[in-house]
Structures are given as structure tokens and as C-alpha cells.
Amino acid sequence: MQIIIDTNIISDFLNGKESIVKFINGSKPDELYITTITVLESFGGWQSALSKAKDIERAARIHQGIALTTRLLGRFTVLEYSEEAMRVFEVLKNRKLNVSSNDLRIGAIALANGMPLATQNRRDFERIKELTLYGWE
Fold it and tell me: Where are the alpha helices (DSSP H) in the chain?
């Protein structure tokens, strides 16, 4: 089965959450996908942390995290935010679902590709009724 994983799954893997580590490490290379939105969110978080680093030790740890994130993201096929996904996003946005724009974009990419989404943020993504959510626990 091909599954898109949400940004929070990447974060939980990097933080060593056992169930997520087992899920990712137990999957075949062609089963898990990420989106360009997840790439942007992952590195945006590091950029924000780096801009707030007060000393070289903290900055060095952040750069280690950036390197680790780069290696992890390189394991997955990256799905782009295509024109089709952008059209789906516009439909979802017009529904006023009270879901963040980036989550709507990730949901739109999943819908445009006909793939389920693995996320720890089920509450928001369940508002996108057409979206199939994958559960691993």
C-alpha cells in the first residue's frame, strides 16, 4: 500500500516516538511518500530554530538536526503540489473547514493522488470527508 505521511510523523520519528519509528522502519521503500509541503515545513522549522539560536552549541545541534532531517526525507518519494492538487485545495479552502492551509494542501495532494494519509492530527484531517486516513497503532 502507498501512503503519504504527514509532517508530524516526520517530527515524531526524529524525536524517537517508538510506534512511529516502527511504522517507518517496518515499511518498504516504495510504500511511504511525503509532500513538498512536508519538506517546506520540516526545513522551515529548523530555519526558525536556527534564527533563535543564542550560542554556537545550540546552532551546531540545529545543524545536526538539519542533516538528520535531510537524510530521513531522502528516503521517501516526494509528491509535488501539482496544479490538480492546487485546484482541490481551492475547493477545500472554500468549504471553510477550520484546517490550516498547509494541512489542506497536504490533504489536497493526498486526494489528487488517490492515496491515504498517515497523521497524528486526525482531528483536523477528519474534516476533509473524502480523505482516507491511515492508522498504524
Answer: 7-14, 18-25, 36-52, 56-73, 83-94, 101-113, 122-125
CA distance 49 to 8: 17
Q: Which residue carries 517546506 as its cell?
A: 40
Q: Quickly count: other Cβ atoms within 10 Å of residue 98's Cβ.
A: 7
Minimal CA–CA distance to 119: which of 37, 63, 44, 45? 37
- Tens of pLDDT, residue by residue over 3-61, are 999 999 999 999 999 999 999 999 998 999 999 999 999 999 999 999 999 999 999 99
Amino acid symbol at 48: S
Check: CB of residue 53 under 8 Å from CB of residue 107: no
pTM: 0.92
Cell numbers describing residue 102: 498547509
pLDDT at residue 137, as a whole number: 56
